[in-house]
């Protein structure tokens, strides 16, 4: 059985500074994301064995491990790609995402109103989780802001972009100042990737 | 346990300057006209080193715990307003905020008390009813520790692991709770360990097993014994 591997980052560990420090990116990618990959592979191997032996109760008990670690692998794989170093062309909403920008403005009235609503949703997460802009049902659908707990992935809708609100995503740099992290994240959102996902959907982020 | 909680309630009242207390509540939450307040720690921020750094303790107490206290007070004010107006829908909407911030206040208040510096007896469980219960339930203290550590390591997301007492049977057990869900209802909290990343990340980063192993050196077993009695 082919196993999942840690995808390389599309930029250097320090490339998102000063918004996200090199140390956070290294730990987040090499340790946290890698652990989700390893635990997903272990759970899938156990799942394959249980399938062969027709052990239904083992299959059921593996579901939560697959959900958590598979979700962690999907979410981080999407996250790395929906970030870009500050000041790069992809970070320019107007230039990089004309279709998405129009849809955001028609849905929330203005870019600022959207960012305000998105930030409030992120701050409202109680515990670990993610905030997402999604396109409901498929590409070019109705835009919605949604949050998922722990490592639950977005299913059914297109994840246009996601923001990791686990403390490990910002704590070494921002401590309990979550609002500071959220303010900074806009400087590194990859709107070019968001436009692509909004207009054409997301390919399987975990293609083996 | 009741005496202990009443004591933290008194600390909270002293700090808030409130004069009337109708009934001592649960871990520093009192039903008084005053507001919930941040309880003082019984030791210095640096006193739990090297298990937990002074910087973590300071941020955890002054910033994280204090935010739960303030947000809980805000939610309760809104609840009182909604009750005053007889607005049932608004009262229901406030439930998650009260559970989360009230739970955060309860959990941290219990947590600070169940920690102590090594120099003040941290990490020492003396022979008695609790150590007997641990031995008879888990076989040995070491076996209990590894079960508790496994429960902590298995938390998916933010949460707590607790040694609890079942009010119906008097038996002890290990239970995990998501986010800031407090130990209420059938179980009584004896010993809680905070598995939120903010509880250890500055010192241990992703090596959370090291934090779970180091914290045993600063457990205040005298308090756990009192809660169990």
Automatic annotation (TrEMBL), chain A:
Keyword DNA repair: no
Residue ranges of domain Manganese/iron superoxide dismutase N-terminal in the record: 3-83
Gene3D superfamilies (alphabetical): Fe,Mn superoxide dismutase (SOD) domain (1.10.287.990), Iron/manganese superoxide dismutase, C-terminal domain (3.55.40.20)
GO molecular function terms noted in the UniProt entry: manganese ion binding; superoxide dismutase activity
Subcellular location: Mitochondrion matrix
Source taxon at top rank: Eukaryota
GO cellular component: mitochondrial matrix
Binding-site residues, Mn(2+): 28, 76, 164, 168
Role of this protein: Destroys superoxide anion radicals which are normally produced within the cells and which are toxic to biological systems. Destroys radicals which are normally produced within the cells and which are toxic to biological systems.
Quaternary structure, from the entry: Homotetramer.
The protein's name in its UniProt record: Superoxide dismutase
From TrEMBL, chain B:
One Pfam family here: Sod_Fe_N
Entry GO terms, CC: mitochondrion
Chemical reaction(s) catalysed: 2 superoxide + 2 H(+) = H2O2 + O2
Record Gene3D superfamilies: Fe,Mn superoxide dismutase (SOD) domain, Iron/manganese superoxide dismutase, C-terminal domain
SUPFAM superfamilies named in the record: Fe,Mn superoxide dismutase (SOD), C-terminal domain (SSF54719), Fe,Mn superoxide dismutase (SOD), N-terminal domain (SSF46609)
Domain Manganese/iron superoxide dismutase N-terminal: 37-116
GO molecular function: manganese ion binding; superoxide dismutase activity
Cofactor(s) in the UniProt record: Mn(2+)
Entry binding sites for Mn(2+): 60, 108, 194, 198
Annotated InterPro entries: Fe/Mn_Superoxide_Dismutase (IPR050265), Mn/Fe_SOD (IPR001189), Mn/Fe_SOD_BS (IPR019833), Mn/Fe_SOD_C (IPR019832), Mn/Fe_SOD_N (IPR019831), Mn/Fe_SOD_N_sf (IPR036324), SOD_C_sf (IPR036314)
EC identifiers of the protein: 1.15.1.1
Keywords for this protein: Antioxidant, Manganese, Metal-binding, Oxidoreductase
Highest taxon, organism lineage: Eukaryota
Domain Manganese/iron superoxide dismutase C-terminal span(s) in chain numbering: 127-227
Family: Belongs to the iron/manganese superoxide dismutase family.
PANTHER family reported in the protein's UniProt record: SUPEROXIDE DISMUTASE 2, SUPEROXIDE DISMUTASE [MN], MITOCHONDRIAL
Function: Destroys radicals which are normally produced within the cells and which are toxic to biological systems.
Protein name (database record): Superoxide dismutase
Source organism of the structure: Penicillium malachiteum
